[in-house]
Prior knowledge:
Blueprint: E1 20-24, E2 28-31, H1 36-47, E3 52-55, H2 66-77, H3 85-89, E4 91-97, H4 104-112, E5 116-121, H5 141-150, E6 154-156, H6 170-185, E7 191-193, H7 199-207, E8 212-216, H8 218-222, H9 246-257, E9 263-265, H10 274-277, H11 292-302, H12 309-321, E10 329-333, E11 337-338, E12 343-345, E13 348-350, E14 358-359, E15 362-363
Parallel strand pairs: 2-3, 3-4, 4-5, 5-6, 6-7, 7-8, 8-9
Antiparallel strand pairs: 1-10, 10-15, 11-14, 12-13
Helix pairs in contact: 4-5
Amino acid sequence: MPSLEPQKPNKLMQREEGSTMSLLFPDDWHLHLRDGEQMKDVLKHTIQRFRRAIIMPNLNPPICTEEQAENYRKRILSLLSSEDSLESQFTPLMTLYLTDQTSKEEIKRASRNDMIFGMKLYPMGSTTNSSEGVRHLAQLNPILSLMEELDLPLLIHAEETDPAIDIFDREGAFIDRYLQETVERFQGLRIVFEHISTSEAVDFVISSSERVAATITAHHLLMNRNSLFEGGIQPHNYCLPLLKTERDRLALVQAAVSGKADFFLGTDSAPHSQSSKERSCGCAGIYTSHCALELYAEVFEQEGALENLEGFASRNGPSFYQVPCNTDRIELIKKEQSIPSSFPYGSSRLIPFRSQRKVAWQISK
């Protein structure tokens, strides 16, 4: 499979402290908002940085029908104030959760709804709230055929859940066992390979047609699997798919900064309470919405590729999802910000990424 050529950082692109950069307002093409009071506490971070976001449907119970998606969207919109210019401009883009029982009639209803942007495939047991996910992937073929016909995108958490597969190899195994065949069988189906985490995934996307794209998270760009064990188990660095090797991280970085339209921003920001992370069986998920765009700016600056950040954050996603780019702009300032130790999260607290540490950029508020 083809690979991206390694790029050396261009030190001339390092920005001076206090300098600014402007880009078209970006979108988050993979976001977890949860629900209720917890959603209220995290939504404000997203609307400061993104005009639109693809909302993940893996609530408990999951969002499986058009009616459920409409009701969830109304709950999101009810938290937005028309008096706040940022809040009034934010648009949630909904998805439905595929199950073994998803009907063709539900697919048709979803395709007619302008606010439903795709069907989310969670292999059963692959991640948080995936117990009702698809058990037999091959049985989805009639549904995928209809989605191809209706041009309704498929968003995939692409991990093989066979217990015989090493957990660090689940993404590659999913490509070999299912994704390659699916792409070949349904050549007109738009597919988003969500939150890729391996060099194999990068190569697969590059070698596929323009109908296949991938989202990349900030945390997979900034950490490798050593971050799970520095000084002991680090539960707030635990996510699915897991952080991988340094070789994989570097491949993801080169894909993100390359300027290729196949790759775009999707935070997979996944809030959990401190107590649900710091327990004997902690939840998977990293919360980055509080400084997501700034984290991506760090990566692009380190690689001397800030000129490509707008494509990755603001242009490639809209192109793939066939919607216009945003027309207003956001300004970033090269100035350190200190991240709080925690944020309110319903009746609990949430430990954010980079808790009590610094991020090199800020957004102009």
